[in-house]
Amino acid sequence: MAEEGERAAFSVRTAELIVAAAFFLLGAIVIYGSVRLGAKWDANGPQPGYFPFYVGLIICISSMINFARGLRIRGERNTSFVSTGALRQVLSVLVPTAVFAALVGWLGIYVSGTLFIGLFMRWLGKYAWWKVALIAVGTSVAFFFIFEVWFLVPLPKGPLEALLHLD
Length: 167
Description:
By secondary structure, the protein is mostly helical. The chain has helices at about 10-35, 50-70, 85-105, 110-125, 130-150, 160-165; strands at about 10, 40, 45, 80-85. The longest helix has 26 residues, at about 10-35.
């Protein structure tokens, strides 16, 4: 809900339509993949995509129903779903988290984690640089020892870890 005097980022109706369309797309992707695997019943029983095909079909049908219900939202029921201020707060966490997840594949989890923790501490927490460096690097070093050395669980590594021969 939008706070008093704050502008709405989008309405309940818009949110319902966007979520229904996104789930429909998800269901369509499941159906497409299932058909590629084989979604029929053959002489040996169900093909690998048989069950996922019907799950995707249920998702698509449910999404179409939700989309139709969303189109019918009118008047006083179509209130503000989220204010611009609240949306900004959510995106200030969501966007860096998505960037972190994308960078893990290129930089490895330790460098990406250090950058992620450091960004949040400095940008949102306004901590001093020495605290940012100490905690961000210390956390990644601690995770390295916990996962790689003690539990012997290899995590994604990037070019820096390759230079240090941590494989």
